[in-house]
Design goal:
Length: 575
RNA sequence: GCGCUGGUAGCUCAGUUGGAUAGAGUAUCUGGCUACGAACCAGAGGGUCGGGGGUUCGAAUCCUCCCCAGCGCGCCA
């Protein structure tokens, strides 16, 4: 059940019955002030303008054709032609009962289930994951959960970077070390340091660069020994990623890994097929695709290079092969790319080429869910003091440590094991929420303290609301599920209405790939609960009211747990 | 030069096909724990929505010009 959609349906029908043309939008919104009701319909004014009639007269006609008597206690015309809809408490209570008795909180599944491929995380295996990988990993994972929840078939794709010239350097360094097996594994436990050392040798050491290039050639030629070395490196590096995913409570596993190298065999075909489609142009020795839509104002067309003059392929080629695979093998209707905004031109070129070459059908939805670059406090691209990046693992450890210190202070009675568990859940939740709650497609500023804050609009605030409810239940004993819901107090009605709006938040997240909408919803829900908690005593109320309020609390807990779950954030009974 | 993204309170950010008095968090100030958990609640102050012009009953939102910032624009990914 989705209140906005329900009202939209009724008001649209009434608009048409009142003389508005077909498909006139009702423009239903949640009212931002209590005096304007719970919802408002703003479509009358737009329709009146088109019909060139007085909006208030049209509003009157719409009201004559609008029967919301089951849902609303009153519908008023206000201002230049707003329709203010005040929902009926009894109807809200009925809907709450339906949600309480449903495994999915009575949220309607998608009317047209799709197969959706989600391309996210995609670290470069040559190095360790750093804080810049957080957005793609966390936001992509939230979309996986939300789309799955409403009934889409979701296929995760971790397009990791496991190929390219830098691996020659790493393998050359790796093979020159005396150790192997477990000892080597130890060396690679600091992948970042390993990379830096190899890079330094590549830059400084005589002959090393040549050795590195030899390794690239051998690797690409399929040399068995070299391939085994490479495989060993990749396995260790992937294990690093999996440790992070597990700690972050991210769904990605090794089964979701579809590395760049998996498309190697198809790259020559991509070029051949582009040629057959008549899209290939040789320019300065390189194979390019020129599409009119990527023309600058000076009429110079921007090329997309798909094969270098030396015959080598580029990431555009790989992305085209991947896109074709996602259509032919995975049968995707929609593909979401959670990728840095800097790759916007590149991805749009790839999408356009794939469609022009008929690698994928025209109606396939290809969407770049872009996000900005991480900046330091000075507004410049983020770097540590020594010019490196902050390792993701270090951020997570710091988050858990700070959470541990806090829980030890707030709740010293918990055992150390319990405090560690709480610290993990709260610390990771805070980090994830800090990133999920921002919609910015622009750059964002990395800040330890805001990232690790436990107050205000943060995951711990939501987890705290949940833990408070669990505490009430521990004291309340058994709940009478047959009790009637009463929504007498303003705080009760406000909480009730908010509880029924999760579906509207999900609707927007699914459409735009913006989990911050869900964060915002959950923050408002928790806030409404906190106000209700202060204004309406639960355990001290008379039985009838007590049971009613316990049911409200129960549904709040379920909604918080479900909503946070969709963000990949866990709840706790105590914290 | 061209293009993409952004500019909203001291700071970090919301703002749903244009709607009513632009909202949160944080910081500052005031009040609230012998209380169902104070990681909280109630309240106060804080705004030329980068600037000009335009479209209309109505613009942070749409159009246009300008300023500022980040990024991208042929053989890295």
């Amino acid at each position: 059940m989705n209140i906005r959609q329900l009202l939209d349906h009724h008001v649209s029908k009434a608009l048409i019955a009142a003389g508005a043309p077909d498909k006139t939008p009702a423009v239903i919104k949640q009212s931002n002030r209590a005096e304007f009701g719970d919802y408002q319909a703003n479509g009358v004014m737009g329709a009146a303008k088109k019909l060139k009639i007085n909006p208030r007269e049209l509003a009157t006609k719409v009201l004559e054709n609008l029967d919301l008597s089951d849902i609303a206690e009153k519908v008023e015309i206000a201002g230049p032609g707003f329709l203010n809809i005040h929902l009926k408490s009894a109807w809200l209570a009925e809907q709450l009962e339906l949600a309480l008795n449903s495994d999915t909180l009575n949220i309607s599944p998608a009317t047209h289930p799709q197969t959706v491929v989600i391309d996210y995380s995609a670290p470069n295996l040559a190095k360790e994951m750093h804080v810049g990988h957080l957005r793609s990993t966390i936001i992509g994972d939230a979309l996986v959960r939300v789309l799955t929840f409403i009934g889409h078939k979701v296929i995760r794709q971790n397009h990791v970077g496991d190929w390219g010239t830098q691996f020659g350097m790493l393998l050359a360094h790796m093979n020159s070390l005396p150790s192997s097996g477990e000892a080597l594994s130890m060396q690679l436990s600091d992948l970042e340091g390993f990379y830096r050392t190899a890079k330094k040798r590549f830059d400084d050491e005589d002959g090393f660069a040549e050795t590195a290039r030899d390794y690239v050639v051998k690797l690409q030629a399929g040399d068995a020994e070299c391939h085994a070395l490479w495989q060993q490196f990749i396995d260790i590096s992937l294990q690093h990623c999996e440790d992070i995913y597990s700690r972050l409570n991210v769904l990605l596993t090794r089964d979701d890994v579809m590395p760049e190298s998996a498309y190697n065999h198809d790259l020559a075909n991509v070029i051949k097929d582009l040629d057959t489609a008549g899209l290939l142009t040789e320019d300065q020795g390189a194979q390019c695709v020129f599409l009119d839509e990527f023309k600058g104002k000076d009429d110079k067309i921007l090329p997309a290079i798909v094969q270098k003059s030396d015959g080598g392929y580029l990431y555009a080629t790989t992305d085209l092969a991947a896109l074709r695979y996602r259509h032919k093998e995975l049968h995707a209707n929609r593909v979401l790319y959670f990728v840095d905004a800097r790759q916007s031109l590149h991805l749009n070129q790839v999408f356009a080429i794939a469609k022009a070459a008929h690698f994928v059908p025209q109606e396939m939805q290809l969407e770049h869910m872009a996000f900005g670059t991480m900046m330091g406090k000075d507004g410049k691209p983020f770097k540590t003091r020594d010019g490196g990046t902050v390792k993701l693992i270090d951020l997570l450890k710091e988050a858990e440590q700070r959470a541990f210190d806090l829980v030890s202070e707030k709740n010293p009675d918990l055992s150390e094991d319990e405090r560690k568990k709480v610290a993990h859940t709260v610390g990771i939740g805070a980090v994830k929420y800090a990133d999920l709650s921002k919609n910015r497609s622009s750059d964002y500023i990395f800040n330890w303290d805001t990232m690790l804050s436990f107050e205000g609009n943060t995951a711990p605030y939501l987890q705290y609301a949940y833990a408070r409810i669990q505490s009430i239940f521990r004291k309340a004993g058994k709940i009478d599920d047959t009790a009637t819901l009463h929504l007498n107090e303003a705080a009760e009605k406000q909480l009730a209405t908010k509880l029924l709006q999760l579906s509207e938040a999900i609707e927007l997240v699914v459409k735009d790939g913006t989990p911050n909408i869900l964060c915002n919803y959950l923050f408002e829900l928790a806030g409404n609960f906190m106000s209700f908690y202060e204004a309406c005593p639960i355990l001290k109320a008379d039985d009838e009211i007590k049971n009613s309020r316990l049911k409200l609390a129960k549904l709040t807990a379920q909604t918080l747990d479900t909503g946070l779950g969709l963000l990949g954030i866990e709840t706790l009974d105590q914290m």
